[in-house]
Design brief:
Blueprint lengths: L3 E9 L2 H17 L7 H19 L7 E9 L3 E8 L19 H11 L3 E6 L5 E8 L7
Antiparallel strand pairs: 1-2, 2-3, 3-5, 4-5
Helix pairs in contact: 1-2, 2-3
């Protein structure tokens, strides 16, 4: 396998794009050797779902698209980023018992930590941001 593989997809900020982003990432990971049934693939699918949902719901129409980037570096590290053009960074919201939303980043941070990874947010040159997750890459050995 190559030292570095990467791919990206840009989608409209529309709720239907969340499904497309999930499908794209799971298919790509399978192509790179991580079967969809593996725990890590499911974790990444859930994380992408949360980040894509945030990019659609919390940009208030100020980001007409969002981009999902996936990078596999030296078969050691998987980086997934979701970029939108809205300047507001994710906020930690208090966990209210009756709260219907606002827990996306809590879920992302928790799932990422369970896999031994980390979450970061970086600004884009255009004034938006990218939320990155970095996970150790482990592909099950085929028997």
């Amino acid at each position: 396998m190559a030292d570095h593989q990467e791919a990206s997809i840009t989608l409209p900020s529309d709720p239907a794009s969340v499904t497309a982003a999930r499908r794209y990432v799971v298919d790509l990971l399978a192509e790179w050797g991580l079967p969809a049934r593996e725990d890590m693939a499911e974790t990444v699918r859930l994380i992408v779902s949360e980040l894509a949902t945030n990019a659609v719901q919390h940009t208030f129409g100020q980001s007409p698209t969002f981009t999902v980037e996936i990078r596999l570096e030296r078969d050691e590290q998987l980086r997934v980023g979701v970029t939108d053009s809205h300047p507001r960074w994710p906020q930690r919201l208090p966990a209210a018992v009756q709260q219907d939303n606002g827990r996306g980043m809590v879920i992302v941070r928790s799932l990422t930590a369970e896999q031994g990874g980390q979450v970061t947010v970086t600004p884009t040159a255009e004034g938006g941001k990218t939320v990155w997750i970095v996970l150790p890459w482990t592909v099950p050995v085929s028997s």
